Each structure stands twice: as structure tokens, then as C-alpha cells.
Amino acid sequence: MASPDAPAAEAPKAPPGAEPPVVQALGLALAEGTVRPKHAREAEADVFDAANFRQVRNGWWLDRLLPGKVVPYFAAAVAVCTAAWLIGLALRVVALGTDNLTRVFTQFFWDRQWQMQPLLLLVHFICLRLFKGIYSRNFDRAFRHLDVKPSELDGYRNWFLGARVNLLAVPLALPFIVYDALVFFRAPDFYARVFGAGSPLAALDAATRTGEAWFLLGLWTFEWLMFGYYCYLMIAGAMVVRRILRRHDFVDSVDLVLTERQFRPLFNVTAQAGSLIFFFAIIHAAYMFYTRSAGSDIAGLVLLVVLLGAAFAITWSAVRTELRGNVQAAVEALEASYRAAREKLRTMHDVPGIEDDIQRMQVQLKMQLALQQLDYLQNKYESLGRREMLSIMFKMLAPVGSILARIIRWGSLLAALGLGGAAVLQGGDKPPPATQPPAANTETPAR
């Protein structure tokens, strides 16, 4: 046993340039967060989570007609898109006749409008469930820091996702439907504009409309109705947030709300909607570029971006309005504390002794702390919403990065499997290795 007077062993010194333990722990936490499995991350981080595709009780007629589970829903969506393509092909055959079916099939297969239309319809089906999914799944999470009862939240949810969406989505989509109908009925170059100048339909009478054209107009109307549903969810969701914040307060004090950013869940839905709009805009822009269409499609994308900005502005204004009174009250209390401490310090007499010095230091520390709290509170309030806006912009790129990462991951796996299979197949066909010649310093055996 070591003697009590023996010096304690010194702790091993870190090599020069090594990070402190706190930095190492922070780096380890960041690394674990990066490679953490998908199911262990925050539930609302992935817009394309399978839970967002499950059906939630709502009044939207189209969503209620489709299957509730994820796999049957996608099967039904693919079946509808395939059926739409086959109906278009059948109507093309009816319009051009059956004299040369091979040529009609080839021209329809290479028609850019019908190459992209099933894909665009499938993207609408994906966005239909995702928009509804992110708003319904995040509804309770958004208000978990407010003093609102679950029964009242259920009432707001029923109002938000109730049958009125069938009436309010139509006016939002009506201007685009009317525009496409005017082009359909009045454009003299309708076939050349929609199908291209080289399409066999361009040679038809410009005053007539084939069954294929009527069917395409019906598809456009159907897609615009789903577009109106997206617009309704963004605006109505922001208005619900505004209404609840006007009637209810945060449970914790304002300094804790600002420090922990308890208002952040209120912006999560808008951020995920931005991600979904970015994904939709990429596909829709590819459709417009490939089919050389414009007009209502460009206006629709612009409206989505405008409504996204309006939804964020409504939420941001509602949160600031809710916290403004509490921040002002906290600032006034800190100012009063500072003035009281300053007045006490002014009236204190310089008396020799340590007790007087300690009391003077306590008053000065109280004044300094009040000033720091005052500055911190005001800065937090003024910067409210900036990080959320940047988060929306970064999350808008998340779907593209997620899809590319999955493509690269599966591509690498398939490439590795292919190379491994090729190596196995070629392993049995390799000729036996040639006999190595004897070394130079080895004597040749005598015959």
C-alpha cells in the first residue's frame, strides 16, 4: 500500500493538438447522429416516411376512395396511371384509325405529352398523401407546448380536415381549370401546342376535338383539383395555427420558450411542405421543359411558392404576436430589477469591512445579470424565425438529397453484387496457373 505522503500519480497529458474531452464528446455525438438508423431519428425529419402515406380520417373525397395502407395505395396509383395511358392509346387509335396500328403505337409511345403525363399523375398521387400526412401527423406535435386541451385540438383537426375541403379546394383550382378550358376550346393551334407540330393530330381539323383531347382535359382538371387541395392545406393550416395562438399561451415562461425554441414545432409543417413543393417543382419543371408547355403550369408553381411564403409569414407573425406581450413584461421586470439594484447601490455608504464589500458585489452582480438577461431576451425575440426560414430552405433540398443517396446506395449494392457474381462465374473458367520457371540459382537436375 502506498504511503499517505506519497504524491498522487499525475493524469496522463493529452498530446499536443488533441481536442479537449468536451469537443471529443461533441464530435462523437455528431457522428452518432449522422449514422444513426432511420427509425431512431426524429419522426418528422423524413418527409417520405411511410407513415405519411397512411390514410388519416379526413373529408377529401379522393383520398377516401383510395386504399388506406401504403402498398395498396401505391398499387392503386400505378394502376390508375397505367389505365390513363392505355385509355389515351385507345382513343388515339379511334381518332387515327386501325389502318397502320404499328405506326400509331410508335407515334403514341414517343409522344412527349403521354410519356410524361402518367409520371406527373403519379407525382400528384404521391403529393396528395404526403401533404395530408405531414399536416395530420404534425398537428398534435405543433401545439404540445401550448395550454390547449386535446378535445379542443380534435375539434380544430375535424374543422381543418373536414368535408369543407371539398368546397374550398375547388375555388383555388378553378382559375387554372378555366384557363385550360379556354385553351382547349379557343386555341386554333391546340394540337400543335399540346402534342407538338410533328404529331399526326396536328393534321386534323383545328375546330374539332378528339376523344383523346377531351380525356386529356379531364386529366388536367383532375390534377388541378389535387393542386387546389395542396393550396387549401397550406393556407388553412397556417390559419389554424394563428387562431390557436390567439386563444392559448405557451405553458412555460417566455425565457424558456425562447431558449428552448418551443415554437419550432409550429414551423415544422411549413418546412416539410417546402420540401414537398421543391420535389413537386422539380418534376413539374421537367414536365414543362420536356413537353414545351407553359402558361398555367408556371402560374401554378409560382402560386405554390407564394402560398408557402404566406403560410410561413402567417405562422411567424402569430408566434411573434403571442410572445410580444410576455417579452415586454419580462423586459419591464428586468429593467425594474436593474433600476432597483442601481438605486440600492447609489444609497449604500462606503463602510469599511468585508460584509459591506460582499453586499456591494452582490448588488453589482445583480445589475450585470439583469443587463445580460435583458440583452439575451431581446436578441432571441428579434431573431425569432430566422433559423426556421433557413431550415425551410435546407429542408427543401432534403428530398432530392435523400433520393440521390438512396439511388447511390442501391446502385453501389447492385454493382457490388454484379461484380461478385461475375467473379464467381469466371472463377471456374480460369486456366490452371502456368508452372513457374526454376530460379536462376537452382541447379538443373541431371538426366
Question: How does this structure look, described?
Answer:
It is a single chain. It is built from 16 helices and no strands. The model is unreliable at 1-44 (pLDDT under 50). The protein has helices at residues 21-35, 61-65, 70-96, 101-109, 112-137, 139-142, 150-160, 165-186, 190-195, 211-247, 254-259, 264-291, 296-347, 354-382, 386-396, 398-427. The chain is elongated, with a radius of gyration of 34 Å. α5 packs parallel to α10. The N and C termini lie far apart (78 Å). The protein has a domain at 43-329. It is mainly α and 447 residues long. Helices cover 71% and strands 0% of the residues.
Strand segment tally: 0
Oligomer: single chain
Please work out how many helical segments DSSP would assign: 16
Order of helices and strands: HHHHHHHHHHHHHHHH
Amount of beta strand: under 5%
Distance between the termini: 78 Å
Name the overall outline.
elongated
**Unreliable parts:** 1-44
Structural class: mainly alpha
Whole-number radius of gyration? Answer: 34 Å
Largest sheet: none
Integer average pLDDT: 76
Summarize the amount of helix as a percent range: over 70%
Short description:
The protein is mostly helical. It is built from 16 helices and no strands. Helix 5 packs parallel to helix 10 and helix 12 (264-291) runs antiparallel to helix 13 (296-347).
